[in-house]
From TrEMBL:
Protein name: GH43 family beta-xylosidase
Alphabetical UniProt keywords: Glycosidase, Hydrolase, Signal
Keyword Cytoplasm carried by entry: no
Coiled-coil segments: none
Superkingdom in the source lineage: Bacteria
Source organism (scientific name): Nonomuraea thailandensis
Length: 463
């Protein structure tokens, strides 16, 4: 059945964000959609034909690898580090890659389970492979107090370490610091505080360098990462100037990347930069949420291309909707991926289902199907080797039973204490390449915290 309002919405989305049209039945092999990883605080690089991303995992350091951004979400996590030392094996946050010579270094934050005891550490690879193996190298930039989100930069040929620590008179991680490095795991001499604006007093964290046009741009996150107003601000310093002199850092006014209520993206921040495989394009990787509620949950990794202003400063634009179809980075080989919407012909429904556009920007193409009737089913026919289900979770959602090709069912709980959209609810095991059927059955069950048994069908990614 034709849906003129959906066609108009699709055309408007393309016009506003300069995206690749996906079509009703699927997207081209040279396109992708966010998220590319279900975790937060991404450090994403492209190296020797593959993308690598490391994110916050809490009790470990994990890395995902894929030859294309289009398949990064379906890549398996490889755990490269766990620690038996109880002083540093909990609350492990924000790993960051650094390549020096023939070794890789991973900088991260960890504690003994008490937030105030966070300090920074570095791992070293055994060889020239971002996947490791890694060994513990050192504690770094330890000035006897709270320290997180450290990352090296190179300026005027000298390496420096930048991190976030307590702000004088403010409390909490509200100040950026810099110190010289003598090697990838050692800070020498004293530190210098770099005052940084941010539109709030909570944090100045995740300092990340970007060099271009005779300047080093230092982008950093401000405001509490659980808030919808978590955002990026920026300082910069000219080539030749001493970064250990705080006054040499120019403050750029206002946020450079912030919430986009129109596309349903809140709290964008804690980011990294990477170049396209052919080196011609600049991209930002960051985490964002599909909910404006104050929460640290549901932060997922997204990427998008950015450009440069006439004055030589970066132009990051606005965060794109999670389901916006984007052209892959130049030189990315692509993959035989596609997307299916809940209204497409590949999805058939049995039992009582409702549909509509009431979920707005928390749904793919602003519509979904839902049912709370026990025994109701949605069956998806797809051709590929893996499939993912992304849809709304809410306080009134129940438990689904998901099966592939008539095999054993896996229970999936769609409940959440807050409403969040386009959440990764299910990722199938790797399947033989070919045609398959996925069935979602409404069980009529719910966990005790939920108010009903509703299951949502929205976006289906096929790999």
């Amino acid at each position: 059945m034709p849906r003129p309002w959906r066609a108009a919405l699709a055309a408007l989305t393309v016009a506003m964000t300069v995206l690749v049209p996906a079509g009703e039945a699927g997207a081209a092999a040279q396109s992708f959609r966010n998220p590319v990883n279900p975790s937060a605080d991404p450090s994403l690089i492209h190296h020797d034909g593959s993308y690598y991303v490391a994110t916050t995992r809490g009790d470990r350091i994990g890395i995902w690898r894929s030859p294309s951004l289009a398949t990064l979400l379906a890549a398996p996590e490889q755990v490269v580090w766990r620690d038996s030392d109880p002083t540093r094996n909990r609350q492990m946050w924000a790993p960051a890659f650094r390549h020096v010579g023939s070794r890789w270094y991973l900088y991260y934050t960890a504690s003994d389970g008490v937030d105030a005891n966070h300090r920074m550490y570095v791992l070293e690879s055994a060889g020239d492979d971002p996947m490791g193996p890694y060994t513990f190298k050192a504690r770094i930039a330890d000035f006897g107090e709270y320290a997180i989100d450290g990352e090296p930069i190179t300026h005027n040929g000298q390496s420096y370490f930048l991190w976030s620590g307590p702000g004088r008179g403010l409390g909490g991680p509200a100040q950026l610091y810099i110190a010289r490095m003598s090697n990838p795991w050692t800070v020498t001499g004293g530190r210098v505080a770099i005052p940084a604006d941010g539109g709030c007093t909570e944090v100045r964290e995740g300092p990340t360098p970007l060099h271009r046009n005779g300047r080093t741009f230092l982008t950093y996150s401000t405001c509490d990462t659980g808030k919808p107003d978590y955002q990026l601000w920026m300082k910069s310093i000219a080539d030749g100037a001493d970064p250990m002199v705080a006054a040499n850092w120019k403050q750029h006014p206002g946020p450079v990347f912030s919430r986009n209520d129109a596309t349903g993206v809140w709290g964008p921040g804690h980011h990294s930069f990477f170049r396209s495989p052919d080196g011609t394009e600049d991209w930002i990787a960051y985490h964002g949420k599909n909910t404006g509620t104050y929460t640290y949950d549901f932060r997922t990794t997204r990427v998008q291309r950015f450009s440069w202003n006439a004055d030589g400063t970066p132009s990051f634009g606005r965060p794109l909707a999670a389901g916006a179809t984007q052209q892959l980075p130049s030189g990315d080989p692509g993959a035989a991926t596609s997307v299916i919407n809940d209204f497409d012909a590949q999805v058939t429904y049995a039992g009582t289902w409702q549909s509509g556009s009431g979920c707005g920007n928390q749904c793919f193409w602003s519509d979904d199907h839902w049912s709370g009737q026990a025994g109701a089913t949605a069956t998806v026919t797809f051709t590929g080797s893996r499939v993912a289900l992304l849809s709304v979770r809410d306080r009134g959602n129940g438990i689904a039973a998901v099966s592939i090709d008539g095999g054993p069912e896996q229970r999936v709980d769609y409940y959440s204490g807050i409403r969040v959209g386009e959440q990764l609810n299910y990722l199938s095991p790797v399947l033989p390449r070919g045609q398959h059927t996925l069935r979602v059955r409404v069980t009529g069950e719910r966990n005790p915290a939920s108010g009903s048994t509703v299951i949502s069908m929205d976006r289906i990614e096929v790999f």
